[in-house]
């Protein structure tokens, strides 16, 4: 194992200054009451410094303990499934790589390194870190195949990052089975259930996380952050917003606080409140300037408020922080709405390039690629991609995307079946979403279902009059053509 590490490139992906392993193969009130009763635990996750890098003189008698350094901060964060700052991640990766060159049999350090690679790939959008993460985590698991919960947690987080939610569920459930009272397995397992559209299972996993005994209780900010996502999936946006507000106040690190603030910004955006959304995103960027999702959220909100040059700058900054295809897609549609066709097409080319780059690192981008192609490329190819994605991950988001792709491909009756799954309030996870309502309304209009079409198009604009720079004008035009009752 030591030779494998030492033979890796001296520079990591995209100018990474550290080396690494060579790339391998690729209810509301009841729930609120329960969460209030969570005992805040202080989980000791990965705080041992194995390489001696942070050895310091003991504090003077009676003085305060030394503040944790970047390696300890990042190790604690990745072990808890919390965001870590990019500089701290770089420090942790360098520390573990150096340690493993000298101590290749250190099972736990391989798991820590794999988790750090995964988090760095998430922070930067560079999918080339994911094969490195997989190799490190599997090295740890091979050396200790039984009760290696750190490696199992890391593999679950990696699979979620790659949008392989079935694998994430497998690893997450294995980790819980190996150590049911260890809280760190539950956040990744909840994310996996959500990605699969198994919202009742996500709710049960959250309840188990909340009920863990005092000595094993998770930090309350992490519980509240996951609770917000589960509430949102159940259409309980007020509960979700309240949970995020509490999580912001309880977050122990700037990156974690920024993550919760960005979630609050997303909720405000979904409610059609761009000013409130912008405030939350701006606060997130102040807490963590490397927060790419908050920068993209700023771009979305600024565009809705008519502050177009600032919106473009925010989108570009987000793309520099993390090369996600959806950031280029949103910027391209903003350009298209302004009549800047060449600029829009250039961004659409970037979308396809980033999807290919992600696929090379094992990332499943079929949901994004399919929805994008339905609007800006080949709808038939979009249908093929999204049918396969529906078989893997039958969530409301995939139902909406597949319904829209079928509509764009001329298969309107089939399209309405999936659009109904995404929007019907009888389906758990069918949240009130302006884009989903817009898609259903346009499909119904094509099927000459004028009453339902008018109702859903009006609902889309009522939920958010800003949901898309291209969709909003199209919804208004369709409503004008339908006329009044």
TrEMBL record:
<keyword id="KW-1133">Transmembrane helix</keyword>
<protein>
    <submittedName>
        <fullName>Tetratricopeptide repeat protein</fullName>
    </submittedName>
</protein>
<dbReference type="InterPro" id="IPR019734">
    <property type="entry name" value="TPR_rpt"/>
</dbReference>
<keyword id="KW-0812">Transmembrane</keyword>
<feature type="compositionally biased region" description="Gly residues">
    <location>
        <begin position="9"/>
        <end position="26"/>
    </location>
</feature>
<feature type="region of interest" description="Disordered">
    <location>
        <begin position="1"/>
        <end position="26"/>
    </location>
</feature>
<dbReference type="Pfam" id="PF13432">
    <property type="entry name" value="TPR_16"/>
</dbReference>
<feature type="transmembrane region" description="Helical">
    <location>
        <begin position="35"/>
        <end position="57"/>
    </location>
</feature>
<dbReference type="InterPro" id="IPR011990">
    <property type="entry name" value="TPR-like_helical_dom_sf"/>
</dbReference>
<keyword id="KW-0472">Membrane</keyword>
């Amino acid at each position: 194992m030591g030779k494998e590490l030492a033979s890796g490139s001296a520079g990591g992906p995209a100018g990474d200054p550290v080396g690494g392993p060579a790339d391998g193969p690729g209810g509301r009130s009841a729930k609120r009451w329960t969460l209030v009763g969570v005992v805040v635990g202080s989980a000791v996750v990965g705080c041992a410094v194995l390489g001696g890098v942070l050895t310091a003189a003991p504090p003077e008698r009676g003085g305060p303990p030394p503040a944790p350094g970047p390696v300890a901060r990042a190790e604690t964060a990745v072990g808890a499934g919390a965001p870590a700052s990019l500089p701290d991640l770089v420090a942790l990766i360098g520390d573990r790589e150096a340690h493993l060159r000298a101590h290749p049999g250190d099972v736990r350090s391989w798991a820590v390194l794999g988790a750090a690679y995964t988090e760095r790939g998430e922070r930067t959008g560079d999918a080339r870190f994911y094969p490195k993460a997989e190799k490190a985590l599997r090295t740890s698991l091979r050396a200790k195949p039984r009760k290696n919960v750190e490696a199992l947690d890391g593999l679950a987080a990696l699979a979620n990052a790659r949008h392989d939610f079935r694998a994430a569920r497998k690893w997450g459930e294995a980790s819980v089975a190996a150590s049911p009272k260890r809280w760190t397995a539950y956040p990744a397992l909840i994310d996996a259930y959500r990605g699969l559209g198994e919202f009742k299972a996500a709710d049960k996993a959250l309840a188990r996380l909340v009920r863990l005994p005092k000595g094993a209780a998770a930090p309350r900010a992490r519980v509240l952050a996951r609770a917000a996502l589960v509430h949102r999936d159940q259409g309980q946006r007020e509960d979700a917003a309240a949970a995020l507000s509490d999580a912001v106040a309880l977050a122990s690190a700037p990156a974690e606080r920024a993550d919760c603030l960005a979630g609050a910004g997303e909720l405000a955006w979904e409610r059609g409140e761009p000013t409130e959304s912008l405030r939350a995103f701006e606060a997130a960027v102040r807490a963590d300037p490397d927060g790419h999702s908050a920068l993209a959220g700023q771009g979305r909100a600024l565009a809705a408020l008519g502050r177009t040059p600032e919106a473009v700058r925010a989108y570009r900054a987000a793309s520099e922080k993390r090369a996600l295809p959806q950031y280029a897609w949103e910027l391209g549609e903003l350009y298209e709405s302004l009549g800047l066709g060449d600029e829009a097409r250039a961004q659409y080319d970037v979308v396809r390039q980033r999807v290919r780059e992600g696929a090379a690192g094992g990332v499943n981008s079929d949901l994004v690629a399919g929805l994008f192609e339905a609007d800006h490329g080949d709808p038939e190819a979009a249908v093929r991609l999204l049918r396969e994605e529906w078989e893997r991950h039958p969530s409301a988001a995939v139902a909406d995307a597949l319904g829209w792709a079928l509509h764009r491909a001329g298969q309107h009756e089939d399209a309405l079946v999936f659009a109904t799954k995404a929007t019907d309030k009888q389906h758990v996870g069918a949240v009130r979403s302006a884009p989903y309502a817009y898609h259903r309304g346009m499909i119904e209009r094509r099927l000459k279902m004028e009453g339902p079409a008018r109702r859903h198009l009006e609902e889309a604009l009522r939920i958010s009059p800003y949901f898309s720079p291209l969709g909003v004008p199209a919804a208004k035009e369709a409503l004008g053509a339908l006329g009044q009752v």
